[in-house]
Amino acid sequence: MYPAADVLGPADVITDPAAMVPYLTDWRGLFTGEAAAVMLPRTAEAVAAVLRWASQTRTPVVPQGGNTGLSGGATPDASGRAVVLSLERLNRIRTVDPIGNTLIAEAGCILATVQESAAAAGREFPVSIGSEGSCQIGGILATNAGGIAVIRHGMTRDLVLGLEYVTAGGEIVRGPKRLRKNNAGYDLRHLLLGSEGTLAVITAAALRIVRPPPARGSALVAVASPDDALRLLRTLREGAGEEILAFELMCGAEMDLVRARFPQARYPLTARHSWYVFIEIGGECEASVSARLETALSGAFEAGTIVDAVIAATEAQAREIWHLRFAVSEANRLAGPTASHDVSVATEDVPALIAGVAARLGTEFSGTRALFVGHVGDGNIHVNVLFPGNDALAAQGAAVNAAVYALVHDLGGSISAEHGIGRLKSAVFARISDPVELRLMREIKQAFDPAGILNPGAVISAGEPQPRDAIPSRINGTVALTTTSSADQENDEREARLRMLLNRRS
């Protein structure tokens, strides 16, 4: 028996190769590794025991939640030395407090379970993604996940009051505290959030829950340019303020693909347009929501900011509008090889990013098509570059990636808006990071994990496993870039979120 079994007992350790398979490949299929064992602790004390053992034996530990990440951050390398530390059995909701608007969940809790627990108390945990039926709170925290409501509620870190975690040496930092005001010393919580399991292992969190809006309203708006989309956002913020729940941008070429793939889908506008904005706002009643949308859009018409618009009068119409947004993934798959990029810039720089990418690709990579879709309200744009029917162009994927990331870097943006660095982007992250910041990050890593056992290869460490032929790969005789999956899940996430919201209302 592998010695790890002595730490937890045979019932909580997997060493059978066949049984370990689901833990050894990332969600997108880009990374596959090997492990000596999969450890499944049930308590923070058991996590501490595993980490003490790993520290003593210098065994690499790869923390893993629901294994739904998009950057290969929870996959061991190919050496077979590491153990996967699955948190799936730490899955209790400890407390729900609708007065203080807090909820304490253990790291292995499924996100949907957290949402259901909040809903049972008349509250909402406003982080929701398509994998919510399988992703776990620990992974959500470790990647600082986004979701569709970032424009309203911020990233995951904005919804976390306190953490309980275990250090690399096996010491438990008890908690989590539910304090909204706590200026006692350094706030280590924010170092751990988004650290992808490289600094410590989160075992529980105190989360902020909110009162959900009683009513929601949706609209599809046509604008002439991304600049006009930002003008519309300003108008809407002046009229609806904090009630904006979603503000999504899509280029006309992307809409064309969607309509070609789904000819039965209802397109509610009267003509084809260059750019579209999908809007959702919340309010106290349907009448007030509709009035706010009508007032904002009427003013935008008068100002020449928008050229066409339709407001959903029913939930069925809202579903039809959002279907056009969420169908992007399948439409892009039909279009052929695609290189997808999850990037962010300051909201005011979104038009410059879009113009820069389009110009550079047109000059240096003729034959490619740049499509844009994303959460313009928070500066997060997904740049989907199509290589239609041309294997040689698909082979330029790495150069296209470098060009896109260079433009993002020049605008002071991020190469990872929502999905983390993981192993997928660790090399480019090291190249483009400020050297002082990178040195400080390495020093923080050394302070938290001097033996280097926690998730080696992720974020800033060396030795990451190599993805399988990411550019290009052949599937059933056709060339496809495996990076397509990033945009695919992004759109699937929103469709699942919409279905959940509509089901809750019905």
Automatic annotation (TrEMBL):
Q: Which cofactor does it need?
A: FAD
Lineage top rank: taxon: Bacteria
Question: What name does this protein carry?
Answer: FAD/FMN-dependent dehydrogenase
* Similarity remark: Belongs to the FAD-binding oxidoreductase/transferase type 4 family.
Kindly give the Gene3D superfamilies that the UniProt entry links to this protein: 3.30.465.10, 3.30.70.2190, 3.30.70.2740, Uridine Diphospho-n-acetylenolpyruvylglucosamine Reductase, domain 2 (3.30.43.10), Vanillyl-alcohol Oxidase, Chain A, domain 4 (1.10.45.10)
Residue ranges annotated for the FAD-binding PCMH-type domain, each copy included: 31-212
Q: What is the lineage of its organism?
A: Bacteria, Pseudomonadati, Pseudomonadota, Alphaproteobacteria, Hyphomicrobiales
Q: PROSITE patterns under this entry?
A: FAD_PCMH
Give GO BP annotations, semicolon-separated.
respiratory electron transport chain
Keywords for the protein's UniProt record, in alphabetical order: FAD, Flavoprotein
- Supply the InterPro entries for this chain: FAD-bd_oxidored_4_C, FAD-bd_PCMH, FAD-bd_PCMH-like_sf, FAD-bd_PCMH_sub1, FAD-bd_PCMH_sub2, FAD-linked_Oxase-like_C, FAD-oxidored/transferase_4, Oxid_FAD_bind_N
Checking Pfam families in the record gives: FAD-oxidase_C, FAD_binding_4
Q: Which GO terms describe its molecular function?
A: catalytic activity; FAD binding
Query: In its keyword annotation, does this UniProt entry include Iron-sulfur?
Result: no
